[in-house]
Amino acid sequence: MTRSALVAGVDSATRSCKVMIRDAATGAVVRRGSAPHPDGTEVHPSAWWEALGQAVAEAGGLEDVAAVTIAGQQHGMVCLDDEGAVVRPALLWNDTRSARAAADLVAEIGAGGAAAWADAVGTVPVASLTVAKLRWLAEHEPARAKSTAAVCLPHDWLTWKLTDGRDISTLTTDRSDASGTGYYSAAAGAYRPDLMELAFGRQPLVPTVLGPSEPARILQPSAGFAPANSPRIRLGAAGLNPLLVAAGAGDNAAAALGLGARPGDVVVSIGTSGTVFACCDTPTADPTGAVAGFADATGRYLPLVCTLNAARVLDAAAALLGVSLGELSRLALSAPAGADGLTLIPYLEGERTPNRPDATGTLHGLRLTNSTPAHLARAYIEGMLCGLADGLDALTAVGVPVERILLVGGASRSEAVRAIAPAILGRPVLVPRAAEYVADGAAMQAAWALSGSGMTGMNGTDEPPAWGPCEADRSEAEPVPWLRERYHEYRDA
Fold first, then answer.
1. What confidence score (pLDDT) does residue 1 get?
2. What is the pLDDT of residues 220-230, one digit of tens each?
3. Model's pTM, two decimal places?
4. Angle (deg, nearest 10), helices 415-425 and 481-491
């Protein structure tokens, strides 16, 4: 692989699309771009395609790029008809209208219920999973369900638009994203069509699952090639190298790749959602449903706990107090640990872990002495972190080893979050430098696929490239188990 080869990593997230273009040999950032996504819990996929075009344009285009990978938000249900047209706006991971459908699926699988689902696919259905959204569609929009010939996920759809965009039989995905559907077993490496039929009443086409470094397609150079008739995205030009489009990944798997996570690492990511996940050599199956038995982007496994309420809890606190996020952090650090008894159960958008989609947030222990902006700021941050600490407990309960905790995501930039997290998690945390780890992991996968493609004269390897150690600051604090005990008392009330 030569230093001149460039690779692009795309993070098509809930709020935005980001593109990172890196040197495939060194990992050095060459250029970048971004574009916003619309708000809401359902979005027409064309908005993602438009944002991808804008982000690519801002990043200087892909005409000199040798390989590209798209990583995307997991679980979103994209339904296509037999001609490849989108049947309805995609239901995103944070759309909770399918909560009843998820509960019905757990009951309908037969003896064992949740344990049977965990044994089958490593994950128990909740509202966020694609399998529950398919049941909701079949029950509430039967005409659209009848028109659905294929079902895929956001990153699958964008990869398909880049490589074909016409023939649904060419849809592809990877293990990490497929494992978040509820009808693919990461442990067995196979779809469960019986579970798809249980949810949807029949078996629409699903994407072919590619290996971690396997390309979805290699596009041959042609002047002005624009996939799916997009005027914004020009991939390759006459005389340049072909463009390899890699398999892609779910966002958390790509983040783990970008972080260089290894077995024994647990990543606590505080973004739109909160996730606590680990890199493991063996699969997990949690009958309680707290831990999702996902796959990672390297051939290993990625047991994961997700909370709906993460960085937006801090946004809500800042809006309530009429302050910036920086001032919210300062206020929180001026209050004592435990906020003098003020405790927030932060289920402001319902909750996925524990599975309480219709829950609301509650504030406990309000007194004259703690009715201050500082106490409220502290309670909001502590409540959010207590929810994530429950996720760490769930991972250890299924035998996941914990050697290091990596704290990432937008909210990890808060001084108060960094200072309070080790006290509530009960362990020191490493805070890597701020970076676009999902897009970086996607670029790393692109370089990995490129090295084994025969396009560079290099032989592929069993592991992705290592572009150097991830720099991180260490944060320590005295554990506060009494605070979590109080949180649990109110949580379970």
1. 43
2. 765 444 554 45
3. 0.88
4. 90
Question: With the C-alpha atoms ordered 18, 123, 445, 468, is the resulting torsion angle positive or negative?
Answer: positive
CA distance 74 to 421: 26
Strands (E), 75-194: 78-80, 90-91, 150-152, 172-174, 184-185, 190-191
Instruction: Check residue 270 and give left, alpha or beta (phi > 0: left; psi -120 to 50: alpha).
Output: beta
Cα 123 to Cα 181: distance, rounded to the nearest angstrom:
9
pLDDT of residue 454: 54
Active site residue 315: no
Residue whose pair of structure tokens reads 């090295």 in the numeric block: 451
Cα–Cα dist 413/270, whole Å: 10
With beta carbons less than 8 A apart as the criterion, state whether 424 and 417 touch. no
Residue in the structure block whose two tokens are 């897009």: 439
Residues of the chain predicted below pLDDT 50: 1-3, 223-225, 228-229, 231-232, 235-239, 457-459
- CA 151 vs. chain centroid, Å, equals 19
Cα 120 from chain centroid? 22
List 11, 156, 164, 251, catalytic entry: 251
Residues 6+ away with beta carbon under 8 Å from 11: 17, 18, 19, 20, 71, 72, 251, 254, 436, 438, 439, 442
Structure-token match 């809930």, residue found: 14
Predicted local confidence at residue 241, as pLDDT: 67
